[in-house]
Amino acid sequence: MVAGILTPLENVMKSILDFFHTNVGLSWPWSIVALTVLVRILLVPLAVRQIHSMQSMQRHAPEMKAIQQKYKGDRQKLNEELMKFYRENNINPAASCLPLILQFPIFIALYFTLRHEAHNITGSWLHVVPNISDKVTAHWSGYVLLAIYAGSQIASTYFMGATMDKTQRTIMMILPLVFLSVVAGFLKKNILYWMTTNLWTVGQGLITRQLVPKTPPAAALKPSGPRRSSRTPPKAEPEPEPETAAEETTEPAAPAAASAANAPPRRVRRKKKGGARR
Q1: How far apart are CA 80 and CA 65, in angstroms?
Q2: How far is CA 125 from the centre of its chain?
Q3: Cβ distance 149 to 188 under 8 Å?
Q4: Cβ-proximal residues to 125 (8 Å cutoff; 6+ apart), any chain
Q5: Alpha-carbon separation of residue 9 from 103, 112, 198, 229, 268 (angstroms)
Q6: N or C: which end of the chain has fewer CB within 10 A?
């Protein structure tokens, strides 16, 4: 059923591989690598949106954590408030998963293409990996591919999971090691595609970290100063200063009284009656 749904996409993958092999002159392994690079180039606009969404999530992380703490007892109210917060701040939480989701049907279609064309799509890669149509466990080079795949998958999860919870991010980085036994059942050419797309993700993450400036948290963009709450007491009004007029009238009086107290007593002459004798 899945193969029937993906038949049109499988035909597109086959046509692109034939173009790289026949018209461009690449070997089948390098045609797979070229197809991988072409797919990732087409997904660059989504990758740019993913980067912007991750930056926005990091910038508003303190506010989102405050909402989660406030409504941690009400799951429905928490989801409503988070969705409202996403709309107000133009955040798309699913943007970090879109490139991976869109690559998944391409990977499945390529898997069916390589399986159905196993007798045609053969050859060695870098003169180290012989017969890419064999299973991974058929040659020691397959284990090298597995090791490169696991390391690239962990590194790509490191760059893509920047907004994940620490525990969730650790689990996502351990999962590639857990599924190594399952991935070992694939063909080498499937691992080659997956390994190439993971290495592209790692390179894209390194470039964006150098070119895209780090965004400060939303709290750092607000004016500094103590934040008031409902429990913060109102600021006390300053006491009115004493009137200067009173000071001006009282200050000269003090020196005048002191000078009057220190002055010698005034002598008053009395006039004699009858006039002066001759």
Answers
A1: 14
A2: 37
A3: no
A4: 27, 29, 30, 132, 188, 192
A5: 12, 10, 21, 58, 131
A6: C
Contacts of 94 (CB under 8 A, 6+ apart): none
Amino acid at the residue 26: L
pLDDT tens digits along 8-22: 888 898 999 999 999
**Do residues 30 and 16 make contact, with C-beta atoms less than 8 angstroms apart?**
no
With contact defined as beta carbons under 8 Å apart, do 198 and 38 qualify?
Answer: no
Query: pLDDT tens digits for 111-161?
Result: 888 878 777 888 888 888 888 888 888 889 889 988 998 898 888 877 766
CA 194 – CA 176 distance, rounded (Å): 12
What ranges in 19-43 are assigned the alpha helix state H?
Answer: 28-42
Extract the runs of DSSP E, i.e. beta strands, from 50-112: none
> In this structure, what are the phi and psi dihedrals at residue 125, rounded to the nearest 5 degrees?
-125, 125
| Environment class of 110 (CB within 10 Å of its CB; exposed 0-12, middle 13-18, buried 19+) | buried
Q: Tokens at residue 155, please?
A: 């590194």
User: Counting Cβ atoms within 10 Å, is residue 146 exposed (0-12), middle (13-18) or buried (19+)?
Assistant: buried
User: Could you tell me which residues come within 8 angstroms of residue 107 by beta carbon, excluding any fewer than 6 positions away?
Assistant: 190, 193, 194
Sequence letter at residue 35: L
Alpha-carbon 49 to chain mean position:
12
Task: Identify residue 188 by its one-letter amino acid code.
Answer: K
pTM of the model: 0.67
For the record, the structure tokens of 63 come out as: 């506010």
Helix 188-211 crosses helix 28-42 at what angle (to 10 degrees)? 40
